Amino acid sequence: MIPVPRLRSVWAATALCACLVLPACAANTAGAVHDPGSRTVSLDPPRPGDTIPVALAMTPWLTWKPWHGTRLPYSQRWGPASVTDDTATGFGHNPEGAVLAMIQQRARLTGIGDAAWLDAARTMAVVAPDDRPPTARMATGIDPAAALPYFSGFRWISYDGTRAVADLALQESDGTLRSLHATEVWHDSDWRAELVPAPTAAPLPGLDDYQPWPGQPRP
Fold it and tell me: Do 22 and 60 touch, CB atoms closer than 8 A?
């Protein structure tokens, strides 16, 4: 697990660098694909050794769009490169792409109906521990009977290019916070949500040690 003091120092340093270099980086394009709005997007390639996504530095490349009562992030750099009906695919093979996949996939696998769920899940998810395709609807840790929460931030845990692990901060409609443990697996050239039996979101007293998404709702 990444020590918290290290995470905070990397966040601060990266945020400062971002203020200086983000505009220049935004012009870089390669390997074009198309996003839901039919704009050209260029997913960043893997960067060995870069294992900590920083919310503040990512924000200039993110657009949050409404979906079933919540908001989901889209990026020309990190994906999703394609959205078909309620399925989002094509995420960058890097920590940033993984954390966006965590949010997109868990919201969609919670919010879509039973009739469409299995086809969507076979595209966006695998089942632990052997990462096999889903054969029946599984829980995501988010209550499907309640309004979808807002994704307020994340706490990074680990990344090695094949697996990404983080805790997602969820803000419920009454303002309370919960923490959802999320794992992504790199499978068939994309990030897939790893579904586990009986996942739960734990009460979260605040966003200490989490990276809040700028511009998202706050308790």
Answer: yes
